[in-house]
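Why do we care about 3D structure at all? Because function follows from shape, and shape follows, mostly, from sequence. That is the central idea of this module. The next example makes it concrete: a single protein chain, its amino acid sequence, and then its structure expressed as tokens.
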Amino acid sequence: TLPLSWQSFTALKQNEKVLLNWSTANEQNTRDFTVQHSTDGTNWYAIGTVAAAGNSSTERKYSFTHATPVKGNNFYR
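And the structure:
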């Protein structure tokens, strides 16, 4: 069982950067989110960390900007 319930995850290109937005419906004992990037969907690399709510029973919204995406495929999780 995950300590949270996902609501959404989107990636939006903004000029030369990619804005990642996600939201959760509830969280239990969460600490942070490690944002990962891949160019092939198989090999993943951590590119940042975003603090989580910890405990929440309401919708929480988060964002992260990837400042150096590559040309071609960019996958996120």
